[in-house]
Design brief:
With 339 residues, the protein is an alpha+beta fold. The chain contains ten helices and 16 strands. Bound molecules: 2-oxoglutaric acid (AKG) and fe (ii) ion (FE2).
């Protein structure tokens, strides 16, 4: 990640009841930042239950002076992923369901959408635990695993929706949190890069794109190419229960966690009920990943170039499982389409 020029987010009141004011602001600025939107008691309950799970599995230590203090243990294999055992336990917490369906959040979104709200099934699997990253900024590439690379959620899901990023604890500059690139939602869909299964996101400038290409990475989708114009990234010191709602084309990234705590946040997606949706919205994330991993394995087993496999995988990701054909047939069809 390149050095970021940071500025604070401008908040709107949770009680704003004016649909056109909110939707115009979302269109103009690409985000709505609402302090303390989530019910404090529910929020506290889910945080302490996640904290207890993290202590029980050795990731956090029980320290009354510092909640969610990292033990120094890193996750092994898939432990903490949505498919792994601890990830699944977090996803199944009833207190998390409460937060996903928080009354205040729903009321706010109903005003924003001017209609009923539909919560994605995979929201249960969107609690994110970000581990400490003490790598010096200079040596840290865009491809570093500890932070979420710059991307647009609209690349993943090509329908009308909003992402609600929720701070599940207080998150200051040291703990990292989310940053959004000011007004980047007006630039359309940017190129998103992969190297094999390694997701590199959006390069921040032309140099970084060249560096990715040199490593053998390819852009799999998106049109806008990186430019060298100065960019401002917006963030704030988040408090537990704050919600950052943003446009599908808003470029955002995670900031490195340099604190002794684990960073715990969630990112939920919602739509207006009745709007067209994507196959993923009706599935838990581990079901989606199972399909995507199987598609990847199938394509890697074929005698084709990496770039072709990457683009075919991208098509399979958009289509989802086919009721008409098995995976190898679908993979072959997509390869023929991109080759
Ligand atoms: O929390 C993060 O690091 C990334 C979250 C994200 O990408 C999202 O909210 O869509
Ligand atoms: Fe995202």
């Amino acid at each position: 990640m390149v050095d970021l020029s940071l500025a604070p987010l401008q908040a709107v009141e949770a009680s704003t009841g004016d649909h056109s004011a909110l939707s115009q602001r979302l269109q103009a600025e690409g985000y709505l930042f609402v302090r303390g939107l989530i019910d404090r008691d529910n929020l506290g309950r889910v945080r302490s239950e996640i904290g207890r799970l993290l202590i029980r599995h050795g990731f956090a230590v029980d320290d009354p002076r510092l909640e969610l203090k990292w033990s120094g243990r890193m996750p092994e294999s898939d432990e903490l992923t949505p498919s792994g055992p601890i990830g699944r336990m977090i996803g199944d917490l009833p207190s998390l369901t409460e937060v996903i369906h928080d009354r205040g959040l729903f009321r706010f979104l109903e005003v924003l959408f001017d209609g009923e709200v539909f919560s994605w099934v995979e929201n249960a699997d969107r609690v994110r635990i970000v581990f400490q990253d003490l790598t010096p900024a200079k040596t840290r590439g865009q491809h570093f695993d500890y932070v979420t690379p710059a991307h647009q959620d609209g690349y993943h899901f090509r329908v009308a929706f909003v992402t609600c990023w929720v701070a599940l604890m207080d998150i200051d500059r040291t703990t990292g949190g989310l940053a959004i690139c000011k007004r980047s939602h007006r630039e359309g869909m940017h190129q998103h890069w992969y190297r094999g299964s390694h997701y590199l996101g959006i390069p921040q400038n032309a140099d970084q794109a060249r560096e990715m290409a040199r490593m053998g990475a390819v852009p799999v989708a998106g049109e806008a190419v990186p430019d060298d114009s100065p960019k401002t990234w917006l963030r704030s010191d988040y408090r537990a229960g704050d919600v950052l709602i943003f446009h599908p084309h808003m470029i955002h990234c995670g900031l490195p966690n340099r604190s002794p705590q684990l960073r715990v946040s969630a990112d939920f997606r919602y739509q207006r009920r009745g709007d067209p949706t994507v196959w993923q919205s009706g599935h838990r994330l581990f079901e989606c990943h199972k399909f995507l991993d199987a598609a990847r394995t199938c394509l890697e087993g074929m005698d084709i170039e990496q770039g072709v496999a990457d683009r075919a995988w991208e098509l399979m990701r958009r289509h989802g499982p086919s009721p008409e054909m098995d995976l190898p047939t679908q993979a072959r069809q997509m390869v023929d389409r991109v080759a």
